[in-house]
Specification:
With 395 residues, the chain is mainly beta. It contains six helices and 16 strands. An eight-stranded antiparallel beta barrel has the order 1-2-3-4-5-6-7-8. Strands 9-10-11-12-13-14-15-16 form an eight-stranded antiparallel β-barrel. Helix 1 runs antiparallel to helix 2.
Length: 395
């Protein structure tokens, strides 16, 4: 219906080529659609909490916790698409934040931009909850410098990745406003592209307000029908989601990355990394897949490490092999992949006993994909960022 209304407006303003009776009839039909227009919202949030810091040098700088302000603009889905009904009418959009994360002389005054996705659950008449994921970049950090900023053992670059997970309660106050309350976890990291890179993890509470509006409200009242009130909130389409045809999928994924040696070595050299993964996934529901895979890794920085430790380096010393288990959340063309694995071959315990991968995959047509991921060491410590893509076969 939205494209029909858009066509109607274009004809009305630029052509004036339809008879008056036709335009009147078309408008009468268009306004019967309860989801005419585009339902959006503006959201303002205040955050506060504490640092989950595992280092030593920044303890005093982080004593007062963190505070931040976020401004978000979102689009509310109606259930018109099948995947929107699967995820209980999600919303998505873009956001900006600025914060005080501690001593600004040491840590800087970070701000950031990101995209976000809310998946609602436990819907009630006036209150529901949303699981939220935000991914973007944060900038204006004050990175480690051995001379001017030696205490910052958490951040090695001015530009870092921004990741936020949260659970938000949404209380409907009026047709236009919601009151928001929730908990969240925020992570800053550059994926060891610069060192040191302990990263910053912040856990806390947030409150806010959300304002709903419809983008056609003003133009319709001014130019077409002054009596028309566009709905600020959508009427959800409740057509039943058809059963999923389950399937199997094999993929081959290749990626590269760049890392810096430990800042303790006083080196500024950068080293290449590579990943090659053969994976198998089984799609068992509209939302979820599970999988297994074989992983091959190359880390050029191990050459420096092993040369210093053993006095000699073989080409195979920079390589590792592993295997992983995966859970995959499928959102239209996107996948959020969470994988945990262990090594089956390595020279020593430099890379720990297990690794994790958090990745975003975008499926291109039927046989290809692009993927951006973060590989870790023994849990949350960043190893490197994987930039890559691959192909897949489904049956």
């Amino acid at each position: 219906m939205m494209w029909k209304f858009t066509l109607f407006v274009l004809l009305l303003f630029y052509g004036r080529c339809l008879p008056a009776q036709d335009t009147t009839d078309l408008w009468k039909k268009a306004r019967l659609n309860p989801n005419l227009g585009r339902h959006k919202f503006i959201e303002l949030k205040l955050h506060g909490g504490t640092h989950l810091y595992t280092g030593d040098e920044l303890k005093n700088a982080l004593n007062d916790g963190y505070k931040s302000l976020e401004l978000r603009m979102g689009w509310q889905s109606t259930g018109e698409k099948e995947w929107q009904r699967v995820f209980n009418y999600p919303s998505y959009g873009i956001g900006f934040y600025t914060g005080d994360i501690g001593n600004p002389t040491i840590l800087g005054n970070p701000s950031g931009v990101y995209g976000f996705f809310y998946a609602p659950f436990h819907r009630r008449k006036r209150n529901h909850f949303e699981a939220g994921l935000s991914l973007g970049i944060t900038y204006d950090l004050n990175p480690y410098d051995s001379t001017t900023n030696p205490l910052n053992d958490a951040i090695g670059s001015k530009l870092d990745a921004y990741v936020n997970f949260g659970i938000t309660g949404v209380l409907k106050v009026s047709n236009s406003f919601d009151f928001l309350y929730g908990i969240d976890l925020t992570h800053f990291s550059n994926g060891r592209t610069h060192t040191p890179n302990l990263g910053l993890n912040m856990a806390g509470l947030n409150i806010g307000v959300r304002y709903h509006y419809n983008t056609i409200r003003g133009i319709v009242k001014q130019q077409i029908d002054p009596t028309y009130e566009a709905a600020r909130r959508p009427t959800f389409i409740t057509t039943q989601v058809p059963p999923l045809q389950r399937y199997h999928e094999i993929s081959l994924y290749g990626a590269f990355g760049v890392v810096q040696a430990s800042s303790d070595e006083k080196l500024e050299a950068f080293y290449g990394t590579a990943s090659l993964i053969l994976g198998y996934d089984y799609r068992f529901s509209h939302k979820s897949s599970v999988g297994i895979g074989l992983d091959g890794f190359y880390d050029g920085s191990l050459g420096w490490t092993y040369q210093k430790r053993y006095g000699e380096v073989r080409p195979s010393d920079k390589m590792l092999m592993g295997t992983h288990l995966a859970y995959v959340l499928n959102i239209k063309r996107f996948q959020v992949r969470a994988e945990v694995g262990t090594y089956v071959w390595k020279r020593d315990n430099e890379k720990g006993d297990y690794f994790m991968r958090l990745a975003i995959r975008y499926n291109i047509a039927k046989y290809g994909f692009l993927q951006l991921g973060l590989k870790t060491v023994n849990g949350a410590a960043s190893d490197w960022i994987e930039w890559g893509g691959g192909g897949k076969v489904r049956w």
